[in-house]
Amino acid sequence: MRRVLHIVLILLLFGAVASAQDTRRQESRKAALQKEIAEINRRLKENSQSSSRALTDLALVRRKISARQELIAESDREIQAFDDSVRVKQKEIDRIQARHDTLSLYYDRLVRSAYKNRDSRLWYMYILASENLGQAARRFGYLRGFSREMSAQAEKLRQTQAELEVEKERLAALKADAQSLRKQRQADVENLRSEESESATLVARLEKDRKKYQKDLAKKNREVEALNREIAAIIRRATSKSASGKKSAAKGGKSTSTTVDEALSNNFASNKGRLPWPAEGTVVDSYGQHYHPVYKNVKLPFNNGVTLAVARGTQAKAVFDGTVAQVVVIPGYNQCVLVQHGSYFTFYCKLKSVAVKAGDKVKTGTVLGTVDSISGEDQLHFQLWKERTPQNPETWLK
Questions:
Q1: pLDDT tens by residue, 56-88
Q2: Which range marks the domain in which residue 239 is found?
Q3: pLDDT digits (tens, 9 = 90+) for 30-60
Q4: Are residues 25 and 119 in the same domain?
Q5: 96 C-beta neighbours (distance < 10 Å), count
Q6: 35-44, 310-319, 324-333: which has the minimum mean pLDDT?
Q7: Would residue 7 count as lying in a domain?
Q8: Within-domain flag for 1
Q9: What CATH number is associated with residue 325?
Q10: Is 92 inside any structural domain?
Q11: pLDDT class for 273, splitting at 50, 70, 90?
């Protein structure tokens, strides 16, 4: 029996810990969403009102809408949890109230009985009228027990009343928290409607100046294609050089980097999904093939990486230990830094200034440069390759 109780206590403890962890996760997630929405609002405010920014603004607003919808969903889950807690607490109060009522009834009877026999002389006469000492002792014991029962019931009644007051206060606090959360949710819903209207306005703006935007888009597409070709060529040269180094090592030539590179590659691969982002920002263009968000029949160039909208003056940082393979300037992307991590490569573009040079060893978090403002946009373009194959960075970054 003792062992069963021990197991039950352990299970209850684990349940309490799990519940506390869930609550912390929910609070952390809501805080992250609220922070992301605030950051997006700040970036939108920083943006110039030039037409060239409309597409980026649309991506930011749509991401904000997505975050807002998730925030509302989190609030709905919390409100449901509050409602469940209120129901459970009300049942607990009803149970305590019923126990309190029963105790009150029993105590009232005791009080009435004591009142009827309130003259202590009657009690003494009751004991003295006993036929023998045994009966007198029993009568004395009864009267003493009656007195103790009165005191005990009075204490139970007091404790139950105190417990009832505490639970009522907790219920009131739960209801107040639920009401506050409902007000916040309503504010989020109103913000969501405003943001959806903002998105519709941007879409209308893009559709109105279709020719101009398509001209800008064609220029941007050429820049993306040029970037993809340049990066592919740079990595092809880097991997060919690495392969030549391995062949020289096999023939007895001087080469000391092959083993280190393999170890670094394995270490890099083992951190998939846990690498830090190169900068704090919002993804406005993700990896892969996409269609234009407004001109649905227009296919955009394949994106080999991700583009982040960042705050002005943001620094780009290395996502892992490695060696700077090259620093290049590419039209539309300004300065770019290529870092090699064994057979893996990371590429950081749209930098205004660069803090490293080819051959430098870098660590995770090393500042590579500062993001530039290009045509009024503060963005960092990031790519990740395994040898000559581009990877989806979002599956590698935490």
A1: 777 778 888 888 888 788 888 888 887 877 787
A2: 210-396
A3: 777 677 777 766 666 665 444 456 777 777 7
A4: yes
A5: 18
A6: 35-44
A7: no
A8: no
A9: 2.70.70.10
A10: yes
A11: very high
Residues 200 and 243 in one domain: no
Residue 4 lies in a domain: no
* Cα–Cα distance for residue pair 223/235, rounded to 1 Å: 18
Nearest residue to 308 (alpha-carbon basis) of 188, 397, 199, 215: 397
Q: Assign residue 116 a region: left if phi > 0, alpha if psi is -120 to 50, beta otherwise?
A: alpha
The pLDDT value recorded for residue 358 is: 92
* CA 46 – CA 3 distance, rounded (Å): 64
Whether residue 141 is predicted with pLDDT greater than 60 in this model: the reply is no
Number of independent structural domains in the chain: 2
Do 305 and 185 fall within a single domain? no
The encoded tokens of residue 277 equal 């982002």
Q: Tell me: the pLDDT tens digits for 232-255?
A: 888 888 777 655 554 444 444 433
Which pLDDT belongs to residue 339? 95
Phi/psi at 138 (5° precision): -65, -40
Cα angle 375, 378, 379 (rounded to 5 degrees) comes to 105
**Residue 8 pLDDT > 50, yes or no?**
no
pLDDT in tens, 125-136: 544 555 566 655
